[in-house]
Write a structure and sequence with these properties.
With 132 residues, the protein is an alpha+beta fold. The protein is built from two helices and eight strands; from the N terminus they run E-E-H-H-E-E-E-E-E-E. A six-stranded antiparallel sheet has the order 3-8-4-5-6-7. A two-stranded antiparallel ribbon has the order 1-2.
Length: 132
């Protein structure tokens, strides 16, 4: 689901009919919230005070198309990481004390926004926003 609200969205948690094209949950009712690409959109929208939505609401694949590929050792907070086939997206948050990347992402299977390592993420890109 998408939320282009600055700050907390009062709809979060309310039972809402899912309407995402191609989603296996379309037609079911789930608590209103964000999927992985919706979380990334919401973060960019908030940090730019409502001026920018990466991928323009088109999901993880579109977000990936608005990134320049970089190497893992170039990673900085705000870069995006993707699962194979753009099935999932996360945001580089920094590094742990051992230098491993920390990824912030909305993972339905882990019940909301989590910070993990690179498990599953296979590509990285720098959003074009940072070069504009």
């Amino acid at each position: 689901m998408k939320s282009l609200v600055i700050g907390w969205d009062s709809r979060w948690g309310q039972l809402t009919k899912v309407w995402a094209d191609g989603s296996s949950t379309t037609g079911t009712y789930l608590p209103y919230g964000l999927d992985c690409s919706g979380f990334v959109d919401w973060v960019f929208y908030n940090v730019t005070n409502g001026e920018y939505v990466i991928g323009h609401g088109g999901g993880a694949h579109m977000q990936h198309t608005y990134c320049t590929p970089i190497s893992w050792n170039e990673a900085q907070p705000g870069d995006l990481v993707f699962y194979p086939g753009d099935e999932h997206v996360g945001i580089v948050g920094g590094r742990d004390e051992s230098g491993n990347l920390l990824i912030i992402h909305c993972a339905f299977s882990q019940n909301n926004v989590v910070i993990t390592g690179l498990e599953g993420f296979t590509s990285i890109g720098r959003p074009l926003y940072y070069g504009e």
